[in-house]
Write a structure and sequence with these properties.
globular; Sec63 N-terminal domain-like fold; eight-stranded mixed β-sheet; alpha/beta; 718 residues; 3 domains; 43% helix; Rossmann fold
């Protein structure tokens, strides 16, 4: 059913029928519930797929696809240990800073602090360590630098965690670039959730890297999953029939009758959220906690906490929770001011979504991982990349909002969510509970349970940052050859072969590159010969979303170069992607900010129009984001910055972190714009403070004794 509203929509208030939720369970579940418990402690024995992967990476690249929680990280740890024994170095890359930070701390314990470093853009520790942990963007940028300087990446082994991000619409291009640029002498281990075309990806990699790529696939869940249905009366029922038909699992008879014969609306079928406190009591009675509830919107996640009042926890649990929160909040005092702190401490429930501060989400993740929370109400984003296990996951919807519209859950999305059900070493069995409602298609859920994972497509696309960085080290003809190595080109060749077509290989990527190339020539960043001009060389270091228009701002001298508060505010307008209402209270609009913002907008208008006329996207600049960052950089309280921004706290924190990332790239231009570089460094210090980052969070400081190029080259093999 297609929806006609967006997440966070306020529904009309209607009286719902009073439904008593009395915990009960179908007799058929007695045997299943008897298996609930903690597995007996036993000596760890690697699974066969783990051993097979370790053997594979000794002489080849390896792509491991396995369900969430199956032990892929163990493979990485053992492979790294083997590299260290041989005196080599390893690079571990993940898509998320939070995941990189988590792995960094794990590796510190396993391999010792002297052997482990981290690079995530806003964090830099022990950069010459034998084991480097970081984000994929940092690894890609190091490959750019290595190609430019004519050196090879200083590592002997690369691990790409969450490798299925290759198919991510926004960031998949980074994974594909790494796979294309990585020297074939460096073995590659890719760890992924289950994907449909692993063999195809391995064939592509083998064709471009000239070394075998072995696929190690594991389809069995480490903890079995049992699907349940919660009737509005409080009765738990098996969701699926014990028999299947040609299309796979089918709904059990009682559930099919419920779906077919449902006529009167119940509390669960209304547009309102169900009584979560009573639902938690049902799950608690049958030992199905802790649970993750997947909801459609941030607003629903937050509103759910108020519906948990009838869920009680013991005094001991309450004291234990508060003590742990106090300990975790030592470096982030702002946590004690969070509006949901009382709900966590008194009810052991929390919400988790991208609209929250990173420090708050980290607190919730740690408490859940340590078994101190009974329930978390989250959007589907928690399913990807975060170590966030539970005994049970609960579904209220079978669709997902992608930012534009509601679409049915894919098998990959569904398996990522259910992958959180059942904790290896902590649960004998995991559960997925379906709660009926207006937007839960039970037949779709039954189909998704055993549906195979989707194929991963190529998401490579040309952008100005890529074009500039490739031109640093390649001629246009070499770049044309490089683009034929893309996964997109490989897929097209296979398609043509299947159709027995012998036409020219796709030149779409090359045509797109030429469009970017011609514009760079037209605007003076590249010579006709294909070499970068002086402006092109320093502009290539702006590895941000809008490098060209920011570079033009520096060429025109329109950015404030000596005022760190003003520079941070102006740069923030290039980071914000979402349209905002720029009608702002004049009290929040200092005259010099308005003057600087309008000057930048006016001076860059001709260049922006030229980009638009040549068919390139140009984002509008919004004053509200600049006003919020100005207030925050000027030392105003967090609450005031949030008020001005009219954003959720998490969105404002992300705006600040991305602004800091842009400022770091400006800081790297010390040779060309020394004053702006120093000002950018000061601006970073002004905006990276609690509650955006904890007090004790180490951030990157500029190298005092050597520039970044010298530092990079010093640590890499020529």
């Amino acid at each position: 059913m297609k929806r006609r509203y967006a997440p966070g929509h306020q529904y009309p208030k209607k009286k719902d029928p009073v439904v008593r939720v009395r915990p009960n369970a179908d007799g058929m579940l007695q045997k299943v519930f008897a298996s609930i418990g903690v597995p007996a402690k036993k000596e760890f024995v690697p699974d066969s797929f783990q051993l097979k992967a370790l053997e594979a990476v000794k002489n080849a690249d390896c792509l491991v696809t396995a369900p969430t929680g199956s032990g892929k990280t163990w493979i990485a740890e053992q492979a790294i240990a083997g590299i260290l024994e041989k005196g080599g170095k390893a690079w571990y890359a993940s898509p998320l800073k939070a995941l990189s930070n988590s792995k960094y701390h794990d590796f510190l314990t396993i391999f010792g602090p002297e052997n482990v470093g981290i690079l995530t853009g806003d964090r830099k520790e022990n950069p010459d360590a034998r084991i480097m942990v970081g984000t994929t963007e940092i690894l890609r940028n190091q490959l750019y630098d290595a190609m430019h300087l004519g050196v090879t990446l200083s590592t002997d082994f690369v691990i790409l965690d969450e490798a299925h991000f290759l198919g991510d619409e926004e960031r998949g291009v980074v994974w594909e670039e790494i796979m294309i640029y990585l020297p074939s002498r460096i073995p590659l281990l890719m760890l992924s959730a289950t994907i449909g075309n692993a063999g195809q990806i391995a064939s592509w990699l083998a064709s471009i890297r000239k070394r075998e790529c072995i696929v190690v696939a594991e389809t069995k869940r480490p903890v079995p999953l049992f699907p349940l249905f919660l009737h509005p009366s409080g009765l738990l029922l098996p969701l699926l029939s014990e028999t299947t038909h040609g299309d796979g699992p089918r709904l059990s008879k009682k559930i099919a009758e419920y779906v077919k014969g449902r006529k009167s609306r119940s509390l669960f079928d209304s547009r309102r959220l169900p009584p979560f406190g009573e639902i938690l009591n049902v799950l608690k009675k049958y030992d199905l906690l802790p649970a993750i509830f997947f909801l459609k919107s941030r607003a629903d996640c937050d509103a759910s906490l108020d519906l948990c009042a009838r869920h009680a926890i013991s005094d001991f649990h309450r004291v234990e929770l508060k003590a742990r929160i106090d300990e975790l909040a030592k470096s982030t005092p702002h946590i004690h001011l969070h509006r949901q702190i009382d709900k966590i401490e008194s009810l052991a429930v929390a919400s988790h979504h991208s609209g929250q501060l990173p420090s708050w989400k980290l607190l919730v993740e740690k408490l859940m991982t340590e078994g101190l929370l009974d329930a978390v109400f989250a959007t589907s984003t928690v399913a990807a990349g975060v170590n966030f296990p539970a005994r049970t996951v609960v579904f209220l919807n079978s669709d997902r909002y992608n930012g534009k519209e509601f679409l049915p859950l894919s098998s990959t999305e569904f398996h990522q969510m259910t992958g959180r059900a059942g904790r290896r070493g902590m649960d004998n069995i995991g559960f997925a509970v379906a709660i009926p409602g207006r937007f839960l298609d039970l037949r779709l859920v039954a189909k998704l349970i055993d549906s195979p994972p989707l194929d991963i497509p190529s998401q490579i696309r040309i952008n100005f940052s890529m074009a500039l960085n490739l031109l640093l080290s390649h001629s246009p003809s070499q770049i044309e050859d490089l683009l034929t190595k893309s996964f997109a080109a490989f897929l097209l060749r296979k398609k043509n072969q299947a159709k027995k077509q012998t036409g020219k290989r796709s030149s779409l990527l090359w045509e797109d590159f030429k469009n970017h190339f011609n514009f760079l020539i037209e605007t003076g960043f590249v010579k006709e010969s294909g070499e970068l001009t002086g402006d092109g060389i320093w502009a290539s270091q702006l590895r941000v979303d809008q490098p060209l228009i920011i570079a033009e701002g520096f060429r025109l001298g329109v950015f404030p170069r000596s005022d760190p508060v003003l520079l941070a505010a102006v740069i923030a307008s290039f980071v914000n992607e979402k349209e905002s209402d720029d009608r702002i209270d004049k009290r929040f609009m200092p005259g010099k900010l308005i003057s600087a913002f309008l000057s930048v907008k006016k001076e860059l208008m001709p260049f922006a129009k030229l980009m638009f006329d040549r068919g390139f996207d140009v984002r509008p600049l919004f004053l509200r984001s600049s006003a919020a960052i100005y207030a925050w950089a000027a030392g105003e309280p967090w609450e005031k910055a949030v008020l001005i921004s009219e954003m959720d706290e998490g969105n404002l924190a992300m705006l600040i972190l991305r602004t800091a990332d842009n400022l770091r790239h400006i800081r790297s231009l010390a040779k060309v714009f020394p004053e702006a570089s120093r000002t950018a460094a000061k601006a970073i210090d002004l905006i990276l403070r609690d509650p955006v980052v904890p007090f004790d969070y180490p951030v990157i400081q500029p190298d005092k004794e050597e520039d970044e190029e010298a530092s990079f080259k010093r640590g890499h093999k020529v």
